[in-house]
Amino acid sequence: AKNTTGPSDRPSDSATHQTAGDGVATMTTQQGVAIADDQNSLTVGTRGPVSLEDFQLREKLFHFDHERIPERVVHARGYGAKGYFESYDDQSQLTAAAPFSEAGKRTEVFVRFSTVAGSAGSPDLARDTRGFAVKFYTDAGNWDLVGNNIPVFFIQDAMKFPDLVHSVKPEPDRGFPQAQSAHDNFWDFVSLMPESMHHLMWVMSDRGIPRSFRMMEGFGVHTFRFVTASGESSYVKFHWKPKLGVQSVVWNEAVKINGADPDFHRRDLWNAIEAGDYPEWELGVQVFDDAFADEFDFDILDATKLIPEELVPVTPLGRMVLDQRVDNFFAETEQVAFCTQNVIPGIDFTNDPLLAGRNFSYLDTQLKRLGSPNFTHLPVNAPRCPVAHFQQDGHMAMQSLSGRANYEPNSWGDDGGPRENPDTGYRSFPAEEGGEKRKLRPESFADHYSQARMFYRSQTEIEQQHIADAIVFELSKVETHAIRTRIVASLLNVDNDLAQQVADGLGIDEMPDPLEPEATPIDVATS
Ligand code: HEM
User: Given 75, 183, 198, 239, which residue is catalytic?
Assistant: First the structure.
């Protein structure tokens, strides 16, 4: 059934058009049977029992009972919009990726912005990292750039992701706190994981409470590869830069806005698009090679590190304009399924151990969340280029194979269905790999503080004050004294003044020793 009334054409007199006719559609059951009475159950006698025979009632309740699907295990609170990416130039010297093949080329996109920790009904202005996920419907298949508004991540290895997320979600016995940062478990975890310090500084800064989705940067975070048609590869880091600049609110404002309008960010995006004030970002890449990677002080595979733009400037590739709101929040924003493993020829992975875990995790969770391996049949997830394969059946299959062949090789010639294409097909970059299997973090991932310090010191005085205030505020909610002290000990490795301000703010009189800079979680727990 199609709901024909949109927000702009809502009738002002809601008492009109309560029955069909005169251009108003007839309401039907899911089986298409016209409904005469949508107000009353079928009863026996004037005040008698409801008859089980009432198939309209049963169908209506049955469907309602099944309206909910699991919310995303992270990034549950989000908002989507549609638009296009436009390439500035032919970038074939850098990558064979379809969106960048010629100047002015447009590729349709779906974008979903989100918070990470809160539930689907949580307020928009929580202090948190924001998701910035873009699905490019390219003519070579779907490419998802599933990024955040902060260029680094809390952890280096996917093995720790469930622990990180458990620590920010409500505690299992009490079911609170919902505020992810004001949290004994969260601060306990990060105090025991020195690698989280860099991301922590960003999220405690003004970046943690954006003014609007339209005023956030986006980052691919991991190092990816660009690969040209002739097989040459370079490393890239993706950056989205908002046309409106990066803007934030202060905590005092955020608390009030959350109370007065918990939908502030989604309303802002909706209103901007409805007003024709289309949000816009520039997509750019930092491009570098093995020689740079070998000389760089940090490991380019370590997602807790960024590459300073002073060292490798961002090369602009094109712009993204969001000029359409969604037509249906559930069908599009809720059912969209982004996945880091959705890449196209011209784009490839690196050995970042966090990325490897993500490549597994998204598809896995989406099978549960969307309930069927056929979620690529949903319009928001379906590629906009030809799709042909022998995968078949399963729950809710909406696209079916035609003809006899559902395997290959086969003997059915032109009727034998699709075949592999050595010319245009995806080929992994043939990086050479080798070595012993082991469970041990590389030495090159060991420095957890230099970039946290670099970030803190890059901030203006007032921005530094906001960071100190935020940490004091959040830690003042933490009841366990040892956790507060351990954070201060960790901050001593970032900046003495910052550590001192936090200690003063919390009334910690005796300054702890700094944590061993290269401490592992096990060392930290016992120190
Ligand atoms: C959503 C896993 C790290 C950005 C999700 C979801 C899972 C997940 C299971 C829910 C997906 C869904 O239900 O559709 C992981 C794992 C990570 C990781 C295992 C590390 C090992 C990251 C990082 C970023 C990121 C580093 C940013 C670069 C996002 C975004 C979403 C998301 C933006 C929301 C997508 C949407 O709007 O639907 N992640 N994640 N995640 N993740 Fe991650």
Answer: 75
